[in-house]
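Retro notes - structure team

What went well: the batch runner handled both jobs without manual restarts.
What didn't: labels got mixed up in the shared folder, which is why I'm recording both outputs here explicitly, each with its sequence directly above its tokens.

Job 1
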Amino acid sequence: MYFRPTTIDEAIGTLAGQGGRILAGGTDFFPTQGDRPITGAVLDISAIDALKGIRVEPDQIRIGARTTWSEIVAADLPPAFEALKAAAREVGGWQIQNLGTVAGNLCNASPAADGVPPLLALDAAVELAGPAGTRLLPLDQFILGPRRTALAPDEILVAIRVPRRFEQARSRFVKLGGRRYLVISIVMVAAHVALDGQGRVADARVAVGSCSAVACRLPALERALLGADAGAGLAGLVRPDHLAPLRPIDDVRATAAYRLEAAQTLIGRALDLCLSESPHA
């Protein structure tokens, strides 16, 4: 069965009554299907206009679930979103970026999902809608593990909400893979740094992906960075013990030991890039 609702309420009602898998851009849906025939109900949300677009509100920036990576890149967003824009440019080729959605990347819940570390560093939350109403979950409580989220069977993710704090801070995204483009990452890092009038760190957030079952922040490092003088750079402040939340594995792309070593290097690089003027330095 195939359903293509035009409103959020219609989509929720269909899920509650029929169940089914949600289809948005399809850039994860169809590859994971492989050669197998599609079975069960499919809920295509591509006709729900209310899920599109980016809205700047007094206390938050709201990104609709159907917003594509290309639209993120093209959007006029504050400097704190540069890491998210850089990640958007890494999500496959242009065709994927034109169809793939930010919400789909989160719901896919891959440990190597490019959009997760930048959104974690932005303190993002997800807005979920179901028959009982709407609820808001911090992103780190939404993604539970590889391919697992807190999304109930009768809910859809309708938006990502980012608070408007330190939005003029600089943020950077760096990614290490086996080649430069179109690659699943070995390690990826998003860093967010705001300075006070004396050039000291007033706010710092660092998130690492592909080094644990779920991308995660590094709170001990973030605390260590607060108040630091940025004049001499920040990379030297990163210590191995700051990486304690990471749990990398050995796989075909890299060993766990290599991932940890690379993560420390990339974190330092991302932090120092936050001190540069150009987002593409």
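Job 2
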Amino acid sequence: MIFAAGLGTRLGAVGQDTPKALIDVGGRTMLEWTVGRLVGAGADRIIVNVHHQADRIERFVADHDFGAEMLVSREPERPLETGGGLLHARGLFRGDVPILLHNVDVITDDDLRGMVAAHARSGALATLAVSEREASRYFLFDEAGLFGHEDRRHGTRRESRPPRGHVRRLAFAGIHACSPELLGHITERGVFSITESYLRLAGEGHTIRPWELAGRQWLEIGSPERLEAARASLRRAGSG
């Protein structure tokens, strides 16, 4: 599933004129970059949630052959965030294979197929792609998995349970692999971040593990400056 329902407000005028998913980055739209990575990882059914300029994204999806079955999950009243969006689309998942979730504004060359395989072997409820980098928010992991979250912007730290052994503070990369059973464990409703569900479930004893990015490329396109930096990076790499 690709999360593409955001309003694009952080991108300023460009995000208002064009839905984030359809903004060109290095000769391809963000949606094309993301679908390409997911298909390369083995996905044959992809759900895209939409809200802002939903008709444009839906037409774009209908007009292109992405090499996979493409389904659109509309959020007509307002964006439901990651947790609400996932729950809203739950009827579109097969229910018997791992779910790979990917923000549309992230471009990476990481081994997503390997991430899904490692997740399936681990028996964890979810596996979060993370890295050691400077960020304003962090997931907190110990030897047993996720146990907390830290938000430096607001000076808050939340622990779902006491830490066990060595603690690591890792920045989320906007990609996660989940067992289909996760959908049945989500009790939150309305507009909410999947982070809320992960922290609650970690406190209830479910295992949520980290996957450290090993690829050379990770681009998050959340502002005009990052958009231009991503375009420059892809030009240098000869990807455009």
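One thing worth noting from job 2: The helical segments are 13-17, 30-40, 54-63, 81-88, 112-122, 182-185, 194-203, 224-236.
We'll revisit the folder naming next retro.
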